[in-house]
Amino acid sequence: MENFIDGKWVKPLSGTYGDVSNPVTGEVFEKVPHSNIADVDAVMESSFKAFKKWKKVPVAERAKLQHKGAQLMREHSEELGNTLAKELGRPVAACIREINRSADLTDYYTEEGLRLKGEIPLHNIDGERAMIVREPIGVVVSITSFNYPIALLTMKLGAALITGCTIVSKPSDETPLSTMRIAELFSEAGYPEGVFNVITGRGRDIGDALVTHKHTAKIAFTGGTNTGQRIGALAAQHCKRVTLELGGQSPIIVCADADLEKAVPAIVKHTFANSGQFCYRIGRVYVQESIYEEFVKRMTEQTAKLTVGDQFSGCDMGPMISEKMFKPSMEQTADAKKKGARITIGGERLKGSQYDKGWFFPPTIIADADHTMDIMNEETFGPVAGVMKFSNNDEAVALANDSVYGLAAYVFAGELGAGLRIAEDLEAGSVWVNNIQRSYHDVPFGGMKQSGIGREKGRFGIESFTELKTIYYSY
Ligand code: NAP
Asked: How far is the centre of ligand 1, averaged over its atoms, from the C-alpha of 447 (Å)?
């Protein structure tokens, strides 16, 4: 593959390429450019040139193209889902769902974009007015993580394009192919050259150049907190706008009167999906003491039903994407064991012919955890959860908030009022009470504390791709 610039596949000026491999088998099945700073310059020039025209295109025309792009995603969801499953290792059915959900988000942004408005305050001064207009911010650099390549891209893409921004996508070096294909499909939909470009390569090689380039107006980033902090600091030096969607180690509080029939399957699903490689997964479980042992038993039994294997075999979980992602699961489990925790299921790397070529870690529950253990303090980004006892709700909230992160939190409480009170006290950008629905497209998503800055989705997500301008006039 090559970079996708100006609607064409373009060889990298760097002349170098990196491997894309299947995390289940280790087989290298594609190569993508490892771009350099000269490639960054080329892609930014293309996007800036395109921006000058794209910002003047009527919103209704942009909306037609965007709906067409979403439609093509749906029509190719099986093909895209297969590509995604191959590069990521996640079960293919979930990958196809990601494509369709991302198409829905793209459609949602389209409609919401049609509702963006300015304002004219009524000052009642004869012959004078001021109008407040929204303008597209400019060229947006999207830098995304490997774990949900298309969901993370489309959380930015549709919002940027409908407002009149152009976008340069830098997908993860590990899962770039699905993003590249989406860019090609959008070009087929009729998008003008340069409106949606893709450059591949390693973040450490081209990240700084993308962030600081003179044509970069905003960086919309999803990834680790360390990387986000680095990007945020650099962006601030150059007065670039940012949205940072970063890490988390999300807590759940299970009160004594919770409906465990509902809570346990929801918690297991939200702890182990995508092999635990998602930002707002449950990493810390706080359970009221009177139901603690019963809860641990039920969670362990529910977890035992999960199957791990090849992404095309119909199993529930695949491998971790890489050794780097695998390590925290191993290390946090070992740390907890050393400090006296009880591993009720999992805990060892999976071995045997179907597992030996990938980084497979089983769903793992660490019972009797406490806050001296890494599992309750550090992000795992893997299929391991710590479970800890609490006695009253105030203690539970204090434990849940005892974290540098604040992305998501969860509560199950028989009395809804108690659940809502806990939700109000939790320091997190999103809180789920008494069930864990899919995150909706029309409500904001993002983190408090070190989980990020800004929000994606909803009208809030779109507005962050615009600048406000006040125009005073006399008549
Ligand atoms: P990562 O290492 O921070 O990488 C994310 C992206 O940043 C990749 O495209 C990466 O490129 C790029 N990058 C790396 N170094 C860079 C630099 N110096 N300048 C600019 N870009 C750079 O994160 P990851 O390991 O892919 O993903 C896991 C993390 O993402 C977790 O912490 C998770 O919580 C977080 N995440 C957050 C959300 C959210 O919505 N809050 C969603 C998903 C994931 P390369 O691939 O070339 O390294």
From this structure: 15
Active site residue 245: yes
Report yes or no: 364 and 304 within 8 Å, Cβ to Cβ: no
Half-sphere exposure of 441 (CA within 13 A, CB side): 20
State both tokens at 49. 């040139």
Amino acid at 219: I
Q: Of the candidates 268, 328, 324, which has an alpha carbon nearest to the alpha carbon of residue 299?
A: 268
| In contact, 404 and 450? CB cutoff 8 Å | yes
pLDDT tens digits along 6-32:
999 999 999 999 999 999 999 999 999
CA-closest residue to ligand 1 atom 9: 172
Q: Is 338 helix (H, G, I), strand (E, B) or coil?
A: helix
Q: What are the tens digits of pLDDT across the range 92-130?
A: 999 999 999 999 999 999 999 999 999 999 999 999 999
pTM of the model: 0.98
Q: Are strands 452-453 and 241-245 parallel, antiparallel or unpaired?
A: antiparallel
Nearest of 458, 397, 444, 395 to residue 424 by alpha carbon: 397
> How many angstroms separate the Cα of 469 from the Cα of each of 221, 240, 371, 466?
25, 17, 48, 9
- Secondary structure (3-state) at 119: strand
Q: Determine the distance separating the centroid of ligand 1 and the alpha carbon of 226, expressed in angstroms.
A: 9
CA 323, CA 360: separation in Å to the nearest integer?
A: 10
pLDDT at 353: 87
171 Cα nearest atom in ligand 1: 9
Ligand 1 centroid vs 324 CA: distance in angstroms?
A: 12
CB-based contact 116:462 (threshold 8 Å): yes
Torsion angles phi and psi, residue 281, rounded to 5: -65, 160
- Other CB atoms within a 10 A radius of the CB of residue 113 amount to 23
**All domains in the chain, ordered by first residue:** 3-246+451-474 (3.40.605.10), 250-440 (3.40.309.10)
Residue 33: how many CB atoms within 10 A of its CB?
24
DSSP code, position 143: E
Nearest CA to 182 among 39, 79, 44, 94? 79
